[in-house]
Amino acid sequence: MAKIATTAFVCQSCGEVHSKWSGKCNGCGEWNTLVEEVTGGVPGGLAAPKKGTKRSSKVEFVALNDTAEAPARIVMGVDELDRVFGGGIVPSSATLIGGDPGIGKSTLLLQVAARLARNGLKTVYVSGEEAAPQIQDRAKRLKVAESPVQLATETDLRKIITALKAAEPDFVVIDSIQTLWSDSLEAAPGSVSQVRACAQELTRWAKKSGAAVVLVGHVTKEGNIAGPRVVEHMVDAVFYFEGERGHQFRILRAVKNRFGPTDEIGIFEMHQYGLAPAKEPSALFLSSDGESEGGAAVFAAMEGSRPVLAEVQALVAKSAYGTPRRSVVGWDSSRLAMLLAVLEARCGITLAGMDVYLSVAGGYRIMEPAGDLSAAAALLTSLSANPAPERSVFFGEVALSGAVRPVARMEQRLKEAERLGFERAFVPEGAPTAVDGLTVTPIKRLIDLVELLAPDALNA
Fold first, then answer.
1. How many CB atoms lie within 10 A of CB 143?
2. Where is the RecA family profile domain (predicted)?
3. Most Cβ neighbours (<10 Å): which of 64, 112, 115, 380?
4. SS3 state of residue 83
5. DSSP states of 434-453
6. Is residue 161 within 8 Å of 172, Cβ to Cβ?
7. What is the per-residue DSSP string for 338-365?
8. Is the dihedral of CA 277, 281, 286, 287 positive or negative?
């Protein structure tokens, strides 16, 4: 007996299903996101099984100590990309890559597909957003048009799966998952039901065929991958492509990775011939203007196993309006509010009537609490108009009590600063002090940093 299709109201933001329409989604709280969709069809499949078809009910079990060797990773030949993936992409895996429009997702994946094809792997690139001449023109611009990549422009999932089964590729790019549609559902392409069904079917095909599948996903205005969160649970790895359009640097950040670390990043530079791995990632986010004015401090960050140095810039000025402004770029605004409160309550620095602007240079984003001390140093030097000591770095977590707490991998941060020519380091107590060529100054409490960088502010 055929399953009767019914209708339901599905939130296009989180995927929550409602029996009736309402203005606000009960799952995520978003307004005007409920859309009526037909449900009750075959979930996640391309078609219902035909009558009389025998389906095997046998489930095969294997032992945990099975001696079968895992398939070797596919090395993509791009150091930054292989680092983020954990040494290369795993066969039979499904990867989801999201990012803002125009950030370079299609460019990077086309370059990767061309490189793998030149190395002898059967590679397929399926685009649902662009016509074949557009992709071919981009390939000519990237100097990869001669690579034996099989190109297709299609949005019908049934046709795509049929073509992939016939081609038997090793590496597949789907650009993008929001453009595909399955005829087993009556929902529109890009809807929650279609995205979930198409992602599930492609992931299932990847597991059975042994091919590595990369899905490109759109992002919302909040920066999250559009569609239901269950799609991120289906795939094996989720990566976000970050960067500012005004900057040439792009960061590929791992959010989920079943086969590797989730705290690694890959740093790329945008050139006229596409994206290339950064030659000196640790120094990309440092200012090169050579100015010695106050309001800047260098932060020694850690991204996975890689130390990265970034410049934190701050501007403190008297407010011209009744309500002082707090503007943050590249850092957590709530963490800035906490740091300002600690400066006022524990150090006596009054910033209530001041506009505070804080930015991380180069489009970098500080994701760890170790950036507290460098942000405090930038604020204090801007307030006092005195620059920080030349060739100095800062890192450390500031507690609500005003204490500066140790952070992870302090020795690696110091060695990287010394390698790049820095001479002084302001760090929490307990950090290594015997680093050749580097003068290490322990900071026990935030008031100690104030006395070093902005003593006049204490008397104000």
1. 12
2. 70-219
3. 380
4. helix
5. --TT-EEEEE-BHHHHHHHH
6. no
7. HHHHHHHHHH----TTEEEEEEEGGG--
8. negative
**Residue 434 pLDDT exceeds 60:** yes
Known binding residues for ATP: 99-106
Q: Tell me the one-letter amino acid at 261.
A: P
- Interatomic CA distance for residues 133 and 309, integer angstroms: 41
Letter for the amino acid at 76? M
Domain ranges of the chain: 6-39, 79-279, 296-459
Q: Average per-residue pLDDT in the chain?
A: 86
Q: How far apart are CA 200 and CA 187, in angstroms?
A: 16
Q: How far apart are CA 433 and CA 442, in angstroms?
A: 8
Residue 10 burial by Cβ neighbours in a 10 Å radius (0-12, 13-18, 19+):
buried
Q: Which residues 6+ apart lie within 8 Å of 304 measured at CB?
A: 83, 261, 263, 264, 265
Sheet of strand 150-153, all strands in order from the earlier edge strand to the far edge = 150-153, 123-127, 171-175, 212-217, 94-99, 237-242, 249-257, 265-271, 274-277
Q: How far apart are CA 223 and CA 445, in angstroms?
A: 36
Cα separation, 102 vs 104, in Å, equals 6
Q: What would be the CATH architecture of the domain defined by 79-279? A: 3-Layer(aba) Sandwich (3.40)
Q: State yes or no: pLDDT of 1 exceeds 50.
A: no
CB neighbours (10 Å) of residue 329? Answer: 14
* Mean per-residue pLDDT, 75-82: 89
* Residues 6+ away with beta carbon under 8 Å from 286: 298, 309, 310, 311, 361, 362
Helix (H, G, I), strand (E, B) or coil at 403: strand
Q: Encoding tokens for residue 328?
A: 């943050």
The pLDDT tens digits for 113-171 are 999 999 999 999 999 999 999 999 999 999 999 999 999 999 999 999 999 999 999 99
CATH 2.20.25.90 is right for the domain spanning 296-459? no
Longest dimension (CA), the chain: 89
Residue 180 near residue 161, CB atoms below 8 Å: no
Can you tell me whether residue 81 is helix, strand or coil? Answer: helix
pTM above 0.85, yes or no: no
Q: What is the dihedral of CA 87, 240, 111, 231, to 10 degrees?
A: 90
